[in-house]
Amino acid sequence: MTKFKNTISFIQDTFKTREFIPLHQPSFSGNEKKYVLDTIDSTYVSSVGAYVNQFEEMIAEISETRHAVAVVNGTSGIEVALRLVGVESGNEVLTQALTFVATANAIAYNGATPVFLDVDMDTMGLSPQSVENFLNEFGELRNNGCFNKKTGKRITACLPMHTFGFPVHLDELLKVCTKWKIPLVEDAAESLGSKYKGKATGSFGEAGVFSFNGNKIVTSGGGGALVTNNSKLGISAKHLTTTAKKPHSYEYDHDELGYNYRMPNLNAALACAQLENLDLFLNKKRSLAKKYEEFFKQSSLKFRTELPETKANYWLMCVELENLEERNEFLIETNKQNVMTRPIWKLMFNLPMYSDCYRDDQVNARFLEDRIINIPSSVI
Ligand SMILES: *Cc1c(COP(=O)(O)O)cnc(C)c1O
């Protein structure tokens, strides 16, 4: 059982330890303590406070969008984004089966059904060709939108996910979505700082959503942000996530069914300090990726690098193994040696709550499910 000895040694040398090496740990090297303590000193720890506004400004700038709305987590951000582009109970939403469960859950929370389409082999994200094939077979444009003529249900959004920070083929996806009048929402939870043809991911669709969970590239402890260039949508998002309260100095007046999804100031303070170091994190991750790339050149494991015309944030780095048996051996060996590695997610339609959902042939998703493994990717 020493097949992957060289790889394990390389990772231990790179992280300069023989102790446990996590997949991704946050790095608090800046103003984190200062800003968090500041919220305590000021007593503004909750849903009102200067850091929330500052966080929203910083995210709008980083994502090159007009509006950013801070929310309690990425999942709630996607849920609200879908609702605001028009997803209603009984609709269908096109997405990938190779994703973290939050993508599908956000669809289901709206009472809609995920339609699982295949990913591209190169991006590991939703394939424009799969979307086009599906719509050519099942899509029908009527005057009130796109319908699935087999189920009779309305298709009200397309939700691609930028897997591990590698952007999907956005131009091609946007083209199909425009043709079929389906709003695009980006699950950009993993891709803060990633670019597609020079532009930030999250800024391409009607809305995009980032996550600031503890394991993401930047963390607020827990949190998310919904971004959009559509002012009406941005204003509605803020309204809806703050209990749909009408502005008034003392009256409690709410004009629709809203949510208490606003990010607390305490979390925003942590995120602001983290965001000040985003460029540093991106650079450090890029140099770690370069080291991995060099090392894996003389290995049977294929290290995933960014595609032409894109910049990946290298949030979680990954390798592709020969087959399922090799994958399992690699997982067992590395974890036994205290080097944390994890397989990519199970395909969504193999989970009990999504087992009845439509899926296409999933040739690429099934291939990747058997082979992709994340390796330690922390900022060092
Ligand atoms: C992290 C993540 C989310 C959102 O996660 P939260 O924990 O709710 O912030 C959504 N989609 C994907 C693909 C993710 O990786």
Describe the protein.
- The protein is built from twelve helices and 16 strands.
- It is an alpha+beta fold and 380 residues long.
- The protein folds into two domains: 5-26 and 278-347 and 361-374, Aspartate Aminotransferase, domain 1 (Alpha-Beta Complex); 32-276, Aspartate Aminotransferase, domain 2 (3-Layer(aba) Sandwich), CATH 3.40.640.10.
- The chain has a four-stranded mixed beta sheet. Strands 12-14-16-15 form a four-stranded antiparallel beta sheet. It has a three-stranded parallel beta sheet with strand order 3-2-6, sandwiched between helices.
- The structure holds pyridoxal-5'-phosphate.
- Pyridoxal-5'-phosphate (PLP) binds next to helix 4 and helix 5.
How is the topology of this model organized?
Blueprint: H1 5-14, H2 32-42, H3 50-62, E1 67-71, H4 74-85, E2 92-96, H5 101-109, E3 113-117, H6 128-138, E4 139-142, E5 145-148, E6 155-159, H7 170-179, E7 185-187, E8 195-196, E9 199-200, E10 207-211, E11 224-228, H8 231-241, H9 265-275, H10 278-296, E12 302-303, E13 310-311, E14 317-320, H11 324-336, E15 342-343, H12 363-369, E16 372-375
Parallel strand pairs: 2-3, 2-6, 7-10
Antiparallel strand pairs: 1-11, 4-5, 8-9, 8-13, 10-11, 12-14, 14-16, 15-16
Helix pairs in contact: 2-9, 3-9, 4-5, 4-8, 6-7
The structure holds pyridoxal-5'-phosphate.
Pyridoxal-5'-phosphate binds at residues 73-75, 99-100, 102-103, 161, 187, 189-190, 211, 213, 224.
CATH level-1 class of the largest domain: Alpha Beta
Strand order of the largest sheet: 1-11-10-7
Structural category is alpha+beta
Order of helices and strands: HHHEHEHEHEEEHEEEEEHHHEEEHEHE
Largest sheet: 4 strands, mixed
| Poorly predicted ranges | none
- Please tell me the CATH architecture of the largest domain by its name: 3-Layer(aba) Sandwich
**Roughly how much helix do the residues carry, as a percent range?**
25-40%
CATH H-level homologous superfamily name of the largest domain: Type I PLP-dependent aspartate aminotransferase-like (Major domain)
Write the CATH fold name of the largest domain. Answer: Aspartate Aminotransferase, domain 2
Count of DSSP H/I helices: 12
Overall pLDDT level: 97
